[in-house]
Amino acid sequence: MQIKRTLTFFDEVGMEAGQKIDPPLRKVAVVAIIDNPFAGRFERDLSALTKASEQIGRTICNLAVSMLAPHKPESYGKAAIIGINGEQEHGVSLLTTVFGNVMRDAAGGGKAWISSFTKRAVPGSTIDIPLAHKDALYVRSHYDGITITIPDAPLPNEIAVICAYASRGRPNHRVGGLAASEIKGIDGLV
Fold it and tell me: Does pTM top 0.85 for this prediction?
């Protein structure tokens, strides 16, 4: 499967609630637009999408991580928007463990489950991509997200595959919970 288009999104927060944020919070998302080979018809075996997600993931995840430089990824998330002639399951099949492992590799490792969201939608729709710490899901400071809008995609027979990364937790975090410095890194939770 060929990537037809790649879109990038970059958000950097250097000031929040009158407080300077140092280092700044940098959030990025990269989108790959592909044709949906199963649009308009039911296909029981979606393994072709899962297999293709490995190369799609390598392309967009490496680009996303490079956009964080000089910072390293601390959190991540994934999403897909499926054009209206497809099924939500088509997007889910692109975000399985195959894609997730590529995301982890690009981030330099990661133990935590990767938050995700999929939906069917028309071009110009907005999607919120959830973010969580890459090594421990229970690190509250990293519960965040990035919202993107793709003005002219996905078309009815396309899928938008999305990876997102952030360089740190939310600015001014102060609601407790496990601190990033306390991560044990054993089970992806703590």
Answer: yes
